[in-house]
Amino acid sequence: MTEKIPKLREALDGIPTYKPGRPAAAGGPVAYKLSSNENPYPPLPGVMESALAAAGSFNRYPDLACTALMNELAERFDVPVGHLATGTGSVGIAQMLVQSTSGPGDEVIYGWRSFEAYPIVTRISGATPVEVPLTPGDVHDLEAMADAITDRTRLIFVCNPNNPTGTTVRRAELERFLDRVPSDVLVVLDEAYKEFIRDPEVPDGLELYRRRPNLCVLRTFSKAYGLAGLRVGFAVAHEPVAAALRKTAVPFGVSQLAQDAAIASLRCEDELLGRVGSLVCERKRVAETLAEQGWTIPESQANFVWLRLGEQTAGFASVCENAGVVVRPFPGEGVRVTIGETEANDLFLRAAELFRKEM
Ligand SMILES: *Cc1c(COP(=O)(O)O)cnc(C)c1O
Questions:
Q1: Three-class SS of residue 8?
Q2: I need a surface site. Which of 167, 257, 270, 299 has the fewest CB within 10 A?
């Protein structure tokens, strides 16, 4: 008799494993990691203290309901506590949202290319991904996304700004799109890079959600607030969506370290947003320098830039690596480069210039 192996769901076949940005190799020529859109600033002392204080009781489970953090978020963003849910990063919440809405036979729409977690969480649920190509300018094609809605559509992700292109959809077009979506289809507005937006025409999802019970806004502490390693994000949505999220959350998923560090971060938000301001200045400098070098790149409102390099993607990534920065190649498509420390950005710009001359 042949040994049987545990039966696994067919839905898992062919799902790519989430690919993290590569770290800078220790001791190698690469000194800087610009591959994961992380915040280059180390934790603020006050935030670090809160996390370390919480570490003293990690023999205990954390507060399951994240009560203190929920209260703090409710006050900061002027939303009812009942409209909030937390999770192990906003990726964790994205997975909970798909689980809450979609199963086999259901469809999940998102732009492509966009955040690589969307196809993964969709297929884990057994739902069918419907990928709608970005416009030639690398922006979400909201008209085409609305056209793609069927009776089977349960959820639509809109990533604003979009990862990895940095492009945004503006207020009027987003409102027009939302008006076209049936009220029983959930729209998830992923605002992981919200704090880096400077275009006043890009709407704040929290303003839109108040009038729209089928809109869920995703935010994270990983990027602007610099807590990527602690895994905490949150969603804002009306009941019953928020209630569904509280049901599907992994119990005790958000550690006490993460909860307390998130609260401390909200309390020193001015300082953290000052750092975001410096990164936005660096983004401007990087974009302008690339333009002077002759590159055409889409306008980014996030903490990264996108270079559509097609077949030259791998070659460009290795030129960067030799220059001391590890970037994020998407083979055959392009390269995403995080805005990091000034020295790191300089190394990247030098590599881009070198590559340009040899093109
Ligand atoms: C980084 C990122 C997130 C946040 O991930 P966390 O799980 O909160 O660390 C969510 N959405 C997009 C589009 C991202 O790029």
A1: coil
A2: 270
For position 18, what pLDDT does the model report? 81
37 lines ligand 1 (CB under 6 A): yes
325-326 and 304-308: which strand pairing? unpaired
What's the 119 CA to ligand 1 centre distance in angstroms? 14
Residue nearest to atom 1 of ligand 1 (CA): 192
Q: What DSSP string runs through 34-73?
A: -SS----SPPPHHHHHHHHHHHTTTTSPP-TT-HHHHHHH
Residue 3 Cα, ligand 1 centroid: separation in angstroms?
41
Q: Which residues pair with 189 in a beta bridge?
A: 158, 217
Cβ 190 under 6 angstroms from ligand 1? yes
> Rounded CA gap, 43 and 167, in Å?
28
- Per residue in 270-296, is it b (16+ CB within 10 Å) or e — as a string? eebeebbeebbebbeebbebbeeeebe
